[in-house]
Amino acid sequence: MRYLDAAATTPVRREVLEAMWPYLTGEFGNPSSHHGLGDAAARALEGARADVAAALGARPAEIVWTSGGTEADNLAVKGLALARPRDRHVVTTRIEHPAVLEACDHLVRLHGFRVDLLDVDADGVVDLAQAERVIGPGTTLVSVMLANNEIGTVQPVAEVAALARRHGALVHTDAVQAVGSVVVDPQRLGVDALTVSGHKLGAPKGSGALWVRRGLALEPLVHGGGQERGRRSGTENVAAAVGLATALRLAVTTTPDGPRPSGPVAELAAARDAFVREVLAGADGAVLTGHPTERLPGHASFCFPGTSGEVVLLGLEQDHGIVCSSGSACAAGSDEPSEVLLALGVVPEVARTAVRFTAASPADFEGVAGAVVDAVRRVRALAG
Ligand code: PLP
């Protein structure tokens, strides 16, 4: 099997599993317990917190463990907005992950907030002029993702953050797809909260964290025993925290200039570019979706007009053993065209022909373009 769906999830890395193992077995203590086993768990948890903080160029006390990206996005959007509502005005983009969009919708329905959705251009880049117009002195929070999962476009988050800060609005960014692929440095971005998820990085599903700038009030979503300084109650998942920390230590190098991806990102981008060129040359009418250069290094997403994305996907798996995605994993299986592609101005018939290839290493792209061209031709031949 050739796995080109790394944006959906990744396998747990051996080093990660080995680091987690003791905390699932012999060192199984509850970090709140006052005995040796509890102390060992608490030490492991705080060591993991320090590692996650280091990978973000941050302080350990700024890390809140969560059950993944979805919870971290919810905690950022609702937790920051409810703790300091100002004029109950949230600004986000049309192409955010549902975890952000639905959390904003919750603020509208239950807490009287108003939400402005920023448009994006044909490459998926957020409209900065519109951001300048809608962000004002009463704006509570601005949430703009660092990189989009469906189209790979990397957003000018630092520019948005600078705009927002002029008006005293808080800024959150969902960096789930960006960590380990591009520079993720909350200080340089000028944001107040940043979401990380473990399973895109070789840690288990259900591991994640929210980085929140020191001193900011955060209304908790989960109430209980007051763990995580009252920001997220519940006995901490020590093994998941250790797994996330290990995966981040492997994916990110800390330098005097801040955190940097450790992997061969330039090589990955070069392999991706060669793959994109071959696919565009071989499959008539194929279009690359998302930004041609400001995009995640392992990310290639296309529309193949005259096909169905789901049928191309099926052909690639059955005939070539290549596994990829017809859009985002959450939208997969539904017949609705992707909201992200519609926001780019892609018409619904073409949006239904989307296929996404996401690789973790340059070798993943080798020999795949020919199979893609073949699969697209076969689907068109059947249709025509
Ligand atoms: N945000 C983005 C951009 C994502 O791609 C994902 C997962 O696909 C999430 C949030 C949700 O993360 P999790 O699966 O850890 O809940």
Description of the structure:
The protein has 384 residues and is an alpha/beta fold. It folds into two domains: 14-261, Aspartate Aminotransferase, domain 2, CATH 3.40.640; 264-383, Alpha-Beta Complex (Aspartate Aminotransferase, domain 1). It is 39% helix and 15% strand. The protein has helices at 14-24, 36-55, 69-83, 98-111, 128-134, 157-166, 186-189, 238-251, 265-282, 309-320, 339-343, 348-351, 368-383; strands spanning 2-3, 63-66, 89-93, 114-118, 141-143, 170-174, 193-197, 208-212, 252-255, 258-261, 287-288, 299-303, 322-323, 354-358. A seven-stranded mixed β-sheet has the order 2-8-7-6-5-3-4, sandwiched between helices. It has a three-stranded antiparallel β-sheet with strand order 11-12-14. The chain has a two-stranded parallel ribbon with strand order 1-13. Helix 6 (157-166) links the parallel strand 5 (141-143) and strand 6. Helix 9 (265-282) runs parallel beside helix 13 and helix 10 (309-320) packs across helix 13 (368-383). The longest helix is centred in the first third of the chain and has 20 residues, at 36-55. The radius of gyration is 21 Å and the shape is globular. It starts with a strand and ends with a helix. Bound molecules: pyridoxal-5'-phosphate (PLP).
In a few lines, what is going on in this structure?
The chain has 384 residues and is α/β, with parallel strands linked by helices.
Radius of gyration: 21 Å
> What is the CATH homology-level superfamily of the largest domain?
Type I PLP-dependent aspartate aminotransferase-like (Major domain)
Distance between the termini: 29 Å
Order of helices and strands: EHHEHEHEHEHEHEEHEEHEEHEHHEH
CATH architectural category of the largest domain? 3-Layer(aba) Sandwich
SSE-based structural type: alpha/beta
Low-pLDDT stretches are none
Listed once per kind, the bound small molecules are: pyridoxal-5'-phosphate
